Write a sequence for this structure.
């Protein structure tokens, strides 16, 4: 009986470990159009974020760069994927976007090619991320969260039931073993994001 239980536990552990490793199977294109395997980042804590240069949340680039400077040496990698699906707020080529980000925010973290995060042409990476961590809701006690909720409800009364990315600067936090552990909506404070990063870097 004990052997059977132990065998089941070991099998479950192996399945979970294999699932966590799935993120490393994806390839994405960098800002030069070259394929990059996410297996490059094995053993790192990842913060994956879809960004835009003309959004009310665009100043988060500065906060993201601050996180990069503070924690990169400890094992944090920020993976930035510009996306033009929300209010057409990431116009231009990836070269133009990168120039804007370096000139205005001096970003040093890795920026990839523009992608779609929802819909028919969405990146397979984002299909995976959304399957791992669906939408958990906005904090309606926060003014920005309330505004986002009202805006999205006008377009789709059932938006909260769907795992889709809701807006620019949604963030996924990935542990060193490849497990997607947390999804942060753009209205969530960077202090909350930093606290969760700190926990993972200590493991």
């Amino acid at each position: 009986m004990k052997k059977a239980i132990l065998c089941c536990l070991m099998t479950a552990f192996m399945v979970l470990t294999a699932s966590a490793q799935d993120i490393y199977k994806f390839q994405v294109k960098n800002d030069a159009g070259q394929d990059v395997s996410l297996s490059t980042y094995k053993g790192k804590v990842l913060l994956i974020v879809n960004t835009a240069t003309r959004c009310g949340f665009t100043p988060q680039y500065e906060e993201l760069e601050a996180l990069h400077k503070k924690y990169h040496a400890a094992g944090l990698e920020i993976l930035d994927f510009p996306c033009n699906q929300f209010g057409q707020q990431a116009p231009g080529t990836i070269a133009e976007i990168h120039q804007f980000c370096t000139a205005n925010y001096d970003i040093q973290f890795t920026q990839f090619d523009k992608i779609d995060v929802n819909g028919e042409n969405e990146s397979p990476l984002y299909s995976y991320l959304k399957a791992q961590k669906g939408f958990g809701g906005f904090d309606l006690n926060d003014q920005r969260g309330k505004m986002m909720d009202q805006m999205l409800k006008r377009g789709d009364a059932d938006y909260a039931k769907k795992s889709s990315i809701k807006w620019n600067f949604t963030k996924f936090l990935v542990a060193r073993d490849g497990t997607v552990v947390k999804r942060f909506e753009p209205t969530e404070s960077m202090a909350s994001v930093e606290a969760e990063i700190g926990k993972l870097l200590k493991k």
In short: The radius of gyration is 18 Å.
